[in-house]
Amino acid sequence: MKLCYALRRGVYYPSQRDAFGEMPAKELRPRYLKLVREGGFEGVEIPAGGWLANKADEQTARALGAELRDAGLPAVCVRGGGPVAHPQQGAKVRERMRSVIDFAAWIGASVVNTTIVTPATLPNGPGSERRGERTSQGASRYASEADFAETARQLREIGQRAADKGLDLSIEIHQGSIADNSWSGLRLVELIGLPNVGVNPDLGNIFWHFEEPEESSEAAIVAMAPKAKYWHCKSLKKVHYPQLEKAIFLRVPLDIGDIDYRFAVSAMLDAGYQGYMAIEGANSGDQLTQDIRSAKYARELIAQYRPA
Fold first, then answer.
1. pTM of the predicted model as reported, rounded to 2 decimal places
2. Is the peptide bond before 14 cis (omega within 30 degrees of 0)?
3. Strand, helix or coil at 163?
4. Which among 55, 178, 44, 190 is positioned nearest to 111, based on CA atoms?
5. Cα–Cα distance measured from residue 24 to residue 15, given in angstroms and rounded to the nearest whole number
6. What's the mean per-residue pLDDT of the chain?
7. Domains observed in the chain
């Protein structure tokens, strides 16, 4: 298992620009990438949104891919997504996913990670935040079998396009979507039925989805590990306000959060997972120091693993 840097905060002196998930500008990247590589990371995750919004063509994508490989940090995953089966937004999302897959192939990635979060049906209403409440708009618990069938049908077409480009497709377990726990994610993979399509068992998203999680992190990772194609790893400290029926979550380095990553790493390795453990980085403060700390901890866990 290798480590990928799924950066979330892009501020790097002297630039104050903070576009979620995007690296600093080209003139700052040599120093920045050197720090990331020295911190123990072996690849990076790229958000498709910003690059595609700027209409990145094949030449631009291949140049970025070469720059990252030369720095020892190839782009291993491209992140993109949206509600592929939504009656209003689905067609636009599916068209964008075709561009995401092309971009991933050009840049030299091995996997496309997709979320399928649906728009809130009642903005600012109960469950619209999709985090730490007793309800969550768009959750799998409210979906019908027809919702699963149509979502799987659309993802199958995207997955086949990815396969044609030599790419895997990971469905991220994410709050506010029909794939928000181990059962729903695995059900979609079963319905899709393509060998290159699996899950991204993001335990943090299960943990902070509801006021109380639907399943334990341990049960979730054991269930999903055999079908994992990519793996987002973040950890959180939960602060619960039961009188308000609300929980808030503070993002912290992997070794001090409420998710047991020693258990999770063991479960993934025991299932034969050979993909990337993507450290989903800090979004405030000195992110590089926090994320390098998480990478050090992850490397120690991988080195200490012993088969069950």
1. 0.96
2. yes
3. helix
4. 44
5. 7
6. 95
7. 2-304 (3.20.20.150)
